[in-house]
Design brief:
The protein is of the alpha/beta class and 249 residues long. 30% of the residues lie in helices and 13% in strands. The chain starts with 19 loop residues before the first strand and ends with a strand. It binds iron/sulfur cluster (SF4).
Length: 249
Amino acid sequence: MPSPVRSLPPPPAASGARPALGGAPLDGLALLRHALTVAFPGRIAVVSSFGAESAVLLALVAEIDPATPVLFLETGQHFPETLAYRRQLAAHLGLSDVRDITPDPATLARDDPAGQLWHFDPDACCARRKVAPLAAALAPFDAWVNGRKRFQASTRASLPLIEVASGKVKLNPLAEWDAARIAVEFTARALPPHPLAVRDYRSIGCAPCTRATAPGEDARAGRWSGQIKTECGIHVPEYISPAGHRGRQ
Ligand code: SF4
């Protein structure tokens, strides 16, 4: 099998630059279409939180191939509104392969029997409820797509369109989009909003670790508010040591 990394143009050296295919730079939408239909058909999944902005990426994916596998990390700690929205949006867009990815029951019974690990050790909680289940769910795939954008937080300001993580190609086709473009797309496509988005939840994760945001705050300021934690662990950047070993920053 060819290396999955060779199936797409290589990530550009300059952060923020667009990858090129056949001499022409690809924007995020062209990259998404190329990945789903040419580079990785049958070997690519979308990972979605069914959060405040997720409908846009999912609509674009559904337009290209509604049978694309969509992985939803069902941590057991979501708002009921998110679970209802996951069902509503999948039906609305005609997505036919949305998969609920759940934590290992034995692991939770051993390490988080009361469902309170998020309070004492959120990194350990995310590791058990998100990171490990996603790694297992992605095993059959060579590439995956997610909806992160540069404007969402200062920590994402230099997000590239293409990354390589744990030997898989990771695509961020909406990296260049801003809030205004997301809003325009919502309206143009008459996409249903997440029920909490209209109550100032601009980034929505698990219920214990999410609050609404105030005007002027980063969209992700309501995630793990008051803690130094900013990511759940599935998007921790990798580094390659001088000896060629991969590790996590
Ligand atoms: S976001 Fe919070 S509740 Fe959800 S897995 Fe992470 S620490 Fe646990």
